[in-house]
Structures are given as structure tokens and as C-alpha cells.
Design brief:
The complex is a heterodimer of chains A (about 475) and B (about 425).
Chain A (H helix, E strand, L loop, with lengths): L4 H14 L2 H7 L8 H9 L7 H4 L9 H24 L6 H18 L1 H7 L4 H22 L8 E10 L4 E12 L12 H4 L4 E9 L9 H18 L6 E5 L4 E4 L4 H17 L15 H8 L8 H23 L4 H4 L4 H6 L3 E7 L10 E6 L16 E5 L5 E2 L3 E8 L4 E6 L17 E5 L9 H10 L2 H6 L1 H4 L1
Parallel strand pairs in A: 3-4
Antiparallel strand pairs in A: 1-2, 1-9, 2-3, 4-5, 6-7, 6-12, 7-11, 8-10, 8-12, 10-11
Chain B lengths: L18 H12 L2 E5 L6 H16 L2 E5 L2 H17 L9 E3 L6 H4 L8 H10 L7 H11 L2 E5 H7 L7 E4 L7 H9 L7 E6 L11 H13 L3 E2 L2 E2 L4 H7 L8 E2 L21 H7 L5 E5 L13 H16 L5 E5 L2 H10 L8 E5 H4 L4 E7 L9 H4 L5 H8 L2 E9 L1 H4 L3 H12 L3 E3 L5
Parallel strand pairs in B: 1-6, 1-7, 2-4, 2-5, 3-4, 5-6, 8-9, 10-14, 10-15, 11-12, 11-13, 13-14
Helix pairs in contact in B: 1-2, 2-3, 5-6, 7-8, 10-18, 11-12, 12-13
The chains are: A alpha+beta (about 475), B alpha/beta (about 425).
Chain lengths: ~475, ~425
Amino acid sequence: MVSSREHGYEVASRIESQGSANDIIHQLEPPTIPRISAIANMAWCERAAYSISFLGVESNYLPGVGDIGSAVHRIVIKSTLEIVQSIKNGIRLGKSDMLDIFSSNAHEEVDVNWKFYMLSGLEQPLPMIMQDLNIRADRLANQLITTSHDFQKLILRPEFTIRNPKIPLEGRLDLLKIRPRDPVPDSSKYIASDDLVKLNIEDIEIVQIKTGKTKPRTPRVYMQADAEALLLMETLKLKKAPSYTWQFADKDVKHRSFNFAKVCQSINKFVRLWKARESPAITGYCPTCPLKVPCVGWHFARSDKLSFEDLGRRRAAFNLSRKIREEISDTDRWKVYASSRSAEERHHDGWALTGLKLDTSEIVPINQEIVLTSAEDRPFGSFIDFSVGDFVTVSDGNPNLGSNPTAIITNIDLEKSSVRLQSIRNDLYVLTHDNRQTATFTMDRFDFDKGLTTIRYLDDFFRQSSYADKVLGQGAVA
Amino acid sequence: MAAINFDISSLNFNQSENQEQRAARDRTKIENMIPIKGPPGTGKSTVISNCCFELVNEYSPVLVVTPTNAMVDSILSKIDSLSRRSNLRLPRGFIIRYGNVTELKYSYPHLNTYTLDSLVVHHQANNSGGISRIRAGMDLMQNARIILCTDYIAKDLKNIIQAGAVLIDEAGLISLDKMGTIFSSLRDNNGKVIVIGDDKQLPPPSHDYVATSLFRSILTHFSSTLLRKEYRFNKDILDLINHYYDNQLVADHSVQDISTADIAIKDYDGVSNNLRKILQHDKKIVFVDTNDERREEKHFVNTGEVAIVKEVMKGYQSIGINNIMVITPYKQQERMLQLHLQQPNRQGIRIGTVDKFQGQEAEVAIISMVRSNTWQDYHEAIGFLNNSRACVAFSRGKRKTIIVGDQTTLTKNKFLARAIDTVTRKDGFFIWRNSN
């Protein structure tokens, strides 16, 4: 139990000597870290820098499309991991068994995430999911059967999120297949993300799952892949580029040549624009802009194409966008990821609870519930900064690398030194793959509800609400 | 679900509504944008629950939005009370509590029947033809007449419901983008918008001046109704903050004389004489001066004050009072308090920052002010501990407010100096000595 008064001084002095998370954030330049997809947008349309934080990955407005795509994504990853795990455990699976796994995971996905589909207005998501999955599952099952002997040597990492302060990018890779040059000493032991860097890696394959049948890749998609590969190389200190596969429902497509120079050029441009704060003197819009709808319609229309009132509203929106962008850089959103303190240190000062074990007897898939229990030799008494209803993320201690499912705390049992979590989405599989359930976990605070808001909602507000001008006041008369 | 209209006159508003609350409700009949200023304890939740029923006939679904789940649950309990008091037999699904309900099952377990999950199970069970959860959920949401959720969740709902009216509680805490989302969920521009908050309490948790000024901007552009009668704390506590509201607030007779004497279940046996003076029931506001001896440390931690708070808290527990809120402006001090006040069964005792507790109340509030330094400049000496934050802290306790701090440092701020002066005039000023 951490209870002595001296401990408080120790904590305070340690934080002082290492700098707070906010200090670290402010040492980073540029002030925020955009997603790769956002910078890929930006590379093709300079004006996107105005509100790049918000445009992000919101590229279409069709209801439910994003939900079906991410559902397919989860089902494919989860099923693949389950099948590979069975193969590694020496269980022989026939093709029909594999197809059953895909199918049952699809049903489970709809059962667990029914509220998301309800909110999207999709009454029957399963047929839409299966439309993609039927083709894909058949093809993947064939691949998994023919290459099953390879899986013994592979280390798999699903939902691999990378943030690297030296390159102002954030990337989320759907599945990494890591092939070590030397055999891993203890194959039953989970390899933590810190230790991945130390591995002698022969090659890595990035698999990015794309919904639907093969379609032509746009320059933006190529650039996104280039940036993700570059980020992975820098982070894992790879000497050669990884292989990169877009996995469509009907076909795997390899990305063969990377243009890293262009990525660096775009980052520099982004940093320059971001630091400038003021919008560059641009009139009109780019005819090849991939962001036509938001650009042409309102955000980036020529000034003389807008009415006096719209011009005022747009100016107010831009000012607001800039202010919110600044705000985002200050929020706790990145605190977990930018923290230089170890899991142990975060544990002691109340930001995290580490040394947790997954209670495998308490996994309830349908409710997406798990129980994490504190190790016997670790007092639970310093569990001071969490309460029921808090959002948390679970990692192997370093949420900067690796998979981070997010969950809500639904119960805390101080007597049993355990905490019950309910996953936000159907992504608990990232805690159980590749013997990961035998590893220790760290639970960090994750205040993501105070984070990013997309321009889509702001846009709705300014476009549709008669209250916008009245509320903003200055908007109508600027 | 069959549409049910109410005879508003059958609702028992009178027991819960004062003149200003009535005026606010009446405005909803003729105006579209209704800002209401509600200082601490003036019955904002009551206004919201009453307005819900006022609007539900013509403007359903009525969307009720607040910044936190605890506030949503609190309003739901008010609405439930009003409907029970008026003997309304509301059909299942008439009211839906949507979103994160993990706290609800602990704080208001009897309200679980209003949650979407619970309603869906019931709806499926009563549908002989078989119906999916998604379909059941859609049916319920589209037929609901009152929906309650947080501002964060509200953005998701706009895809499936279009509200006739929105009621936003603690609007001063909601940032502009979230507010924009909520307004966008109105089905037309004639929808009703009722924004209730207090521009003198805390702004949204950001440094965004646009967001900060939003609620004020609404107050500037539309006439507002001020709720003046407060129902939370006694008159002495009101005196601590009333000058901040230009002395416009009045304590209701039901609370003006309440004290800890009404709820203490044991005598002062075993409590030291000095501590007993602080705990005395007739001292409703107390300032415990740390007497320059307990300086703040790095990162706004004051472990000396933690020790005092611990003693006072134990004193209250020994006389059977457990509904205590320990408040501090600083997160690091909150952690320190959590560490040192840790007990196996800390039932009833809540520890948190001022920002966390806006909108909540307890029988006794103990406030650790932290700041104790030799800075001459006010901004350096007090800084973050500004008037609005102090006002929120002072107005959480219902029967007693105990402020622990360094008088010399705190009196550099006029608001705090005045508060300490008020306490002193009521004979509640004590200097803490180690012999306590």
C-alpha cells in the first residue's frame, strides 16, 4: 500500500525531474500529431490544412458504410487470429471449420455492436457484412491452409498503433506479420512491444484490410501506405522496407514501390502550414482536389462565390477551427501516448494500474466483459485514480506501441483486487492472441471523450442551424 | 407505441416550482431560445424536468443533454419523481436513458428500467413475432418522447432521431462544437432550445475562448431568466457566495437553517476539544487557517492540509456523518487526498477536484485550498484558483462548508478575502495548531 507521506514528495520530485506529459507535448513540434490519412489528404490539397484535424478520415457521408467496413475488419482480424492460434496449438482445422469461425464471429459482431448499427440506421447489417465476408473468408481459408506451416514462426500483431514524435504521424496497421530471423526462445511467452524492437527481424508484412472487391488505388491511398511503411521502419529500426498488402475481399494486392521522399516533403509542408497558423493566401480551389465536397461547397470556395453572410460565417468557422485545433494540442488526448514514464511510475502516481493478469475464467464475449486481477505480490491499495464509468485503455505497458482496446470500468472489487471492464467495441481479441493472455497488462486512463471532434458536426451546425449566426454573434457581421 | 398527450394541468408542478421556475417554463410556450441562469442549488434539474413535460406534447422527442452521466442520472431521477408524484402511468419507452449507465445501477438502481438495454429486452419479450435487438432499439428510440444522454453521445443520436426540443443542462460547461451538434439534432429551425447554466461557474474544460464565451454569447443575445431561490444550502453558506451574484439569491425557508445537528447520530465522545470547536453544529461555515505553517509543495500539493482534512473527516465520521465531499482545485492534491484518506469502506465520502464536482452536492464539504506561498503578485499567488472555481467549491455543502487554507495567501484575492471575512464575522475562523 502506498501510504507514507514521503511517497508524495517522491512522486512530485520525480515528475518535476522528468517533466509532465504536458511538458513533453509542448516540446514536440509540431503541436499535434495528425493521422496518416489526414496528411495524405493534405498532400493533395493544401487548403485542407485549414481544418485538417477535422477532415481526418471522414471521407464519405453514406450512412452505415464505415460501420460495415470496420465490422468486416474486426471479424477478419479476429477470425484470422483464432485460426492461426489453433494451428499453432496443433489443432487441425478443415476449410469448413475455418468458414464457420468467420461466420460465427460475424454473428457475434452484430450481437455485441447492435447499438452502433441501430444508430447508423442499419436494421440488418449481417447480410451486408456477409456479402464481403463470403468471398473473403473462402479465399483466406485457402491461404491459411496452404501456408499453415509458416505460422509456427510468425509473430502476429493486430491493430498495431504507432506514434512517433520524431515523425509527426500516427498510423494504425490492421495486422503485422513479423518473421524473426532467429527462433523466439520461448514461443509460449508474449513478446511485449518494447522487445519487438530488439528482435532480429527478417521481414515484416503489413496487411491493411479494405472492404469490398478490388478497386483502383488513388494517389492518396499510395501515399498513406508509404507513410505507414516509413513510420514502421523508423519505429522498429528496420533496415529494409516492409512488404505491404491491401487485402480486398477478392484479392490481395501488393504495394511494390515506396516513395518516402514524398512523404517527408508532405510532412514538411504540413509543419510549415501548421506553424504559420494563418491561412495561406489562396483564392479559388484546386481542380484536382480529392476533398471536393467540403472544399468546393463551402470551406474553400472562392470568397467572391460566397454571400456576405456566408463569408462571415466561414471566417468564424475558420477562427473556431484554429482555436479548437490549438485546444486539441493541449488536451489529455495524447498524454498516455507521449508519457515518458514507465508503467510502474504511472502506476505509482495514479495514472495507471499495472501488473494485471487477465482472468481467463471471467471472459464474457457477448457482453465484451473481462476481469483484470492484480498480481498477489502487488498491493491494490494504490488503486486511487479510477472509478466505475471511467474510460481506460489496456496495453502491455507501453500504449505507444501495440494494441490498445478501450473499455469502461464496470466494477472494482478491492477485496479481490480486480477490475471488471466492458469493451467499447468488439476488440477484446487483441488481448488474447499469441498467448498474450499470459502476459501482464497495464490499464491507463484514456480521456478520449474529451478529444477530437470532427468538422462534420461543426459543419452541420454552420450549414443547417439558424442559431449559428445568432449564437456566434460575430459570425453574421464579420 | 400509441401517442399519449398529457393534460399539463394534471401534473403536480406546484410542489416543486417557484415563481422563477414557473416563469421559465411559461417561456417555453412562446419563445424558441430560452436561456436560464441557474446559480448553485437553485433547482435547475427541477426546471428541466418540468419543461420536459411542458414540451412533450408538441415537441417530442425532447432531448435532454448534460455534460456528465452523473448529471443525466440526476435529472432522470427528478423526472421520475415528478411523474410518480403526479401519478402518471407512463408507458415503457416513453423516457429513455441512453449512453453509459454504469453509474446509474449504483446510484439509482430503481431507474434501470429507463435504460435502452432494459427496454429492448422487454420489447423483445413482448413481441411474439420475434424481433431483432436492432429493430427493437430503433422502434424504441424513434417512439421515445423524452431521451436523456450526455453531450458526447448526442452526436450519435442525430442519425436516427430528430428532436423537437433540446434542453441543455450546465450549458456553461458544454463546448461550442458539442453545442453545435446538439442544435443540429433539432428537426427544424422552430425547435425549442432551453439552455440552463451559470456563466459565473466554470467554463468548458478547455482554453478555447470561443467555447468559453458561447453560453455568455447566448445570454447576450437573448433575454434570460434568473433562478434566485436556492434549495441546497443554509443561509450562512449562501452568504459566502451571494455577493458574487450581486446578492440576488435567497435561501428557501426549507433550507435556510439546516445544520449538521439534523443528521448527526452520535455525540462528540472521543473528539478533542479543539476539533470539537470546528465540528460544532452551529458553526455552518468554518475557515481553518494553516497559519503559514503548511506551505504548498511542487505541483500544487499541500500535504499539511491533507493531514488537517483527514482529522476533520474522521471527526465527522465519529459523530455518524459520512456524506462528505472533499474538494480541492488541484488534481495532484486530489491524488494526495485519495492516498491519505483511503479507507477500506469509504462509503459516502467523495474526493475530487472542483471541476469534477460542479453540479453535485453533499451534506458537508471540506475544501483544501492548497495555495500557501510568499508570492506578492496575485496571479502567482492564487492563479488557477479563481473566483468561479472558488464559488463552485464553496457551494457544494448543504449543511456545512469547511475551508482549509492559508489566510495570508488567500486574502490576496478579493473574493476569497471577502469569504474569509464572512466566515470570521460568523465566528467560524480557527487557527490550526499541531496540538489539535
